[in-house]
Sequence to fold (178 residues):
Amino acid sequence: MNIEGYIEKATVSLLKEVSLRNLTIDMIVSKAEVSKTSFYRHYLDKYDLINRIFDGLFPEELDQVGQNFSFREIMYLVFDVLGKNRSFLVKTLDVDINEPSGLPQHALKSIEKYLFFAIKNKGGDIKSPDIEMAVKEMALFANYYIRNWLIRGGTNTIENITDSIIKVIPYNIHKYFE
Fold:
């Protein structure tokens, strides 16, 4: 395993015991048995580390939404990944939603990125201001539904949440998600 792997494994393990707020770099490097210099060679801070762990959870196929996979199929895949990593995600989402370097903002940007992939893969103009605004709006709704599903323990079905997200797709981009 490489240094990043040790650091990430230690972080996930520590988050089973402490909150993200209480997690320190000292705790991480001690558990990973690496130096602080090594930590900072790979990560800016604990939020950068958390965001990279989050990114690593998802398969590369997500960027194929609209090509090889429908939006619904990708959503089921996303919920499967989220469900399997619920305890980690709940701990890392337990920060101020407006924290610019925290996972909630990073997750929102990730949702936007994959929505843009879906539109681009279906031939849409992702530079259009109307499409950009619609994607930001849809990402906010999707982020809200997904975050609540995670925090509340998945009490709603994946199918219902996916349907709810599809229902709020703005009219001007709906054709890219059919």
